[in-house]
Write a structure and sequence with these properties.
Distance between the termini: 25 Å
InterPro entries: TM_pro_TauE-like, TSUP
Strand content: under 5%
Transmembrane segments: 45-63, 75-97, 103-121, 142-166, 186-203, 210-228, 234-253
Structural class: mainly alpha
Pfam families: TauE
Membrane topology: Multi-pass membrane protein
Subcellular location: Cell membrane
Number of helices: 12
Length: 254
């Protein structure tokens, strides 16, 4: 890897860490850069997953205030993230790269619609609670199952996984978007870490790429969290939908 390529990978890692902390889809920044350095697709995916772990952790630190009072929820949903992330990582190592090509754009598209409609969905959840409906404080089996399946995808590739997380939680939880974003960062970190542990033992990766992305994403995650926490719900939602739309276009065209 040339010095110029190393600088590009570090910069992509920083950008991905910042975007992941606020929205998700940071993989769409790092993955093409890694491919441009000559890494094979699976090696690039594995190296990217390993490198983004520090960025996920720094994003959690940046959003620690929004995580207060959500310990039980994080523990419950994190269990599903462990199972899903491990499954997705195994699939990455065993299935052809084209396995999810058709379903991924559909998942991202549906997630974007749900994020855009989150205020209406949240209002309906609140109304159901007032009327004594069956809305569950932590989303119930439906949310657990949905996030576990989303974590399977996250362990496999991870592009736009954060958007899918936020959309599902926004549909089933009566919480502010910033608090949902904080939980999203934890789930992404869990999936990335579980997948990383598996990759360390069973996959080929490039240590130079991993270390450069790790350094960049750790810095970017802190900056992204510090900036993202200041956004109003409307601005944050608009940013999520905008970045997600770009991700969707990228996935469809490639």
């Amino acid at each position: 890897m040339t010095p110029g390529e190393m600088l590009a990978v570090f910069g992509a890692g920083a950008g991905a860490g910042a975007v992941n902390a606020v929205v998700g889809s940071g993989t769409l920044i790092t993955f093409p850069v890694l491919l441009a350095t000559g890494l094979p697709p699976v090696t690039a995916t594995v190296s990217n997953g390993l490198g983004l772990v520090p960025g996920s952790i720094s994003a959690i630190i940046g959003y620690r205030e929004e995580l207060k009072g959500q310990g039980r929820r994080v523990l419950l949903l994190g269990t599903g993230a462990v199972l899903g992330g491990l499954t997705g990582a195994v699939l990455l190592l065993t299935l052809p790269a084209s396995a999810f090509e058709r379903i991924v754009p559909a998942l991202v598209g549906i997630a974007l619609v749900l994020v855009a409609c989150q205020p209406l969905i949240a209002a309906r959840v609140r109304r159901r609670r007032r009327e004594g409906g069956s809305a569950h404080r932590d989303g119930g089996p439906l949310l657990f199952t949905g996030l576990t399946l989303a974590s399977v995808y996250g362990g496999y590739f991870s592009a736009a996984q954060g958007i899918i997380y936020v959309s599902l939680m926004g549909m089933l939880l009566d919480e502010t978007l910033q608090r949902l974003n904080a939980v999203k960062n934890v789930l992404a970190a869990v999936v990335n870490t579980v997948a990383a542990v598996l990759f360390l033992f069973f996959a080929d990766f490039d240590w130079t790429a991993v270390l450069l992305i790790a350094a960049g994403s750790a810095l970017g995650g802190l900056v992204g969290a510090r900036t993202g926490r200041r956004f109003s719900p409307a601005v944050l939602r608009t940013l999520i939908v905008s970045v997600g739309t770009l991700a969707l276009v990228h996935l469809v065209l490639h």
